Every structure is written in C-alpha cells, then in structure tokens.
Amino acid sequence: xxxxxxxxxxxxxxxxxxxxxxxxxxxxxxxxxxxxxxxxxxxxxxxxxxxxxxxxxxxxxxxxxxxxxxxxxxxxxxxxxxxxxxxxxxxxxxxxxxxxxxxxxxxxxxxxxxxxxxxxxxxxxxxxxxxxxxxxxxxxxxxxxxxxxxxxxxxxxxxxxxxxxxxxxxxxxxxxxxxxxxxxxxxxx
Amino acid sequence: xxxxxxxxxxxxxxxxxxxxxxxxxxxxxxxxxxxxxxxxxxxxxxxxxxxxxxxxxxxxxxxxxxxxxxxxxxxxxxxxxxxxxxxxxxxxxxxxxxxxxxxxxxxxxxxxxxxxxxxxxxxxxxxxxxxxxxxxxxxxxxxxxxxxxxxxxxxxxxxxxxxxxxxxxxxxxxxxxxxxxxxxxxxxx
Lengths: 189, 189
Description:
The structure is a homodimer of 189-residue chains. Chain A is an alpha/beta fold and 189 residues long. Chain A contains five helices and eleven strands; from the N terminus they run H-E-E-E-H-E-H-E-E-E-E-H-E-H-E-E. Chain A has a single domain (2-183), classed as 3-Layer(aba) Sandwich (Rossmann fold), CATH 3.40.50.2020. Strand 5 of chain A pairs antiparallel with strand 3 (29-30) of chain B, so a sheet runs across the interface.
C-alpha cells in the first residue's frame, strides 16, 4: 500500500536494534485518515471472505481495529494484556513471548465474546516475530472460532513471523512489508 | 444521548461497589456503529469550537477517540500508561490516582505531540472521580495547549469528577450521565 509505505519513509525512524519508530502516525499519535485508507484496503483484500468480528490485542492494535471494523460492519474485540479486577474470570488465555522484553505475558478474552460461530479477522499494527498473532490464534482456537485471516499495518519480513502464522493455516495480509532494515535504511518488498 | 442510555440499560450490568460493566459494547467488545453515533453527537455539541487534536489515555479511551476523531478531522494522541522502552524520554508526565486500585500511576505523552498551538478535546470512556481527566489536563497545561473541552461516554455523576474538571475551567460533555446506582438499578440524569 503505497500511501503507508510513503508515510513510513517520510515519518518513520529506524533506531538501533531494528526498531522502527512510527509513533507520529501509528501508535502514539494516530493519523485517523490514514487508518481509514488502511481499512478500505484490507476490506478490498478480504472481499468475499466472511468476517464476523475483528480480534486485536492491547494497546496499539485497538485504534486500527476500530477504524478497520467500520469497513467490515462488525464489532471489535480486544484481548487484554492488563486485565483489571472487573474482567470476567471466565476467559480464554494465551501466553505471548515478547522478544523485545524477553518476558512472557498473558492475553485474555472473556469467553462470551468468541464462539464457534465467529469468523475472525486478526488486526495488529506490527507483525515481526509473530508471537502476538500466535497468541490471538490460540485464543480463537480455544473458542472454536475460525480465523479468516490477519490484517497487519507493517510487517518486518526479516523477523519471519509470517511463516509461523501461515503454518497455522492463517492467511496474512500486510499493508507495508519491510524486507530489510540496514544502516537506518528501509527496503520494502 | 438516548441511544447510549438505552444500550447501557439493555447490556450494562451493575456490580457491587458501584461498578458498571459495559464490556460487551464499550471496553472489551466494541460496537463501532454506536461509537460513530457518539462521534456525531460530540461533534454537534462542540460545533464552532476549534479542536486541533483529540487527547485520550490508554486503554479504553483509544477506540472511542479514534472513531470520534473522524468527525473532527484531527489526529488522536493517547497518553501512555504502559510506556515501552522506545517511548521518547522527552515527555510530559502526570500522576493519576486510581480509587479503584488505591494506587498512583504515571501517564506520559511525548512532548512533540502537544504544543501551545493545540486546542484539545479530551475523550474518555468514563468520568467518575475525574482523576484521569485531571491527569490529561495536567499534560495539556505542561505543553501550553488549550483544553477546549472533554467528551465522555458515561459519567457517574455521584462520584463528582465533573466538579473537579470544571474547576479547572474545562467544559464537560457526557453522553450518558448516571445520577444514581442503587440496588443494581441505574437512574440517569
């Protein structure tokens, strides 16, 4: 998606350790107009596919999921990382390993929000090593929901998360795929 | 806003300790269509007021803010509660006291996203004791940004947050105001 790639080139910054900082339009400040274009594009790519709900995970997936959901006319469910004390005890849970933090955290969804009647689109801002998506797939599997696919803003292809997700039989659509980050330069696929 | 009140009566649940659970449409599963109606209503109430950005706070404010922002044609900035290691060190910070958790947490916004040129609409899902809004006002004040007002989905009037916020000179618009919660019953203003 040219619009997103251009924006990454214009406003993204590559930090040490293959970190791409896009906080001025994607995950701290949010360009809602750009998100709408991303929603249209994902709807196009998933045309003809049944989607009953969009599933994402706290925090940075939420805004994208909400905007994208408008094009599919479905509700969003977001898995919680920081479940408060009022969270339903009756929940699906999955462990997600974070390479960045070298730690495992739990994500949870109340059971009442996912069922075998659902056909889910998983939405997130980044796909890197794929651990967050695998966690969402695990939640879906526990509930019996079908996973129709994943819709990702930015994929770091060199971290190979896509392979792990596709091995689970899940289709992946990423709107900007970064093949390489070298010397603070980005090379898109 | 009748649509929201009706939805609260239909799908909300009052738990012990004056807790209103609305996780099936507001803060775990999200009804994007309802959020759009909330966006239209807030735009109507703030017609003629200059808004350059919407400021909210992790987590449950984000989806509402993103949808509402479409009606104001402005970006969203969300203050971080769980700032990762890539968060700008150069940030505005405020302490927010949580009555629910009897603990104080920090919220942060990178300095580059707020300035004295901004006129902010603060958006959040709940207004109860007002501490989160006071934290956002504090961030705005540090940056020199003007606060044009607050747009809230559900206000618990009996917890008196509005008074504290209005004392700071900030206009508050809430789409559903709950006067009382008694015996698991809700009474709207």
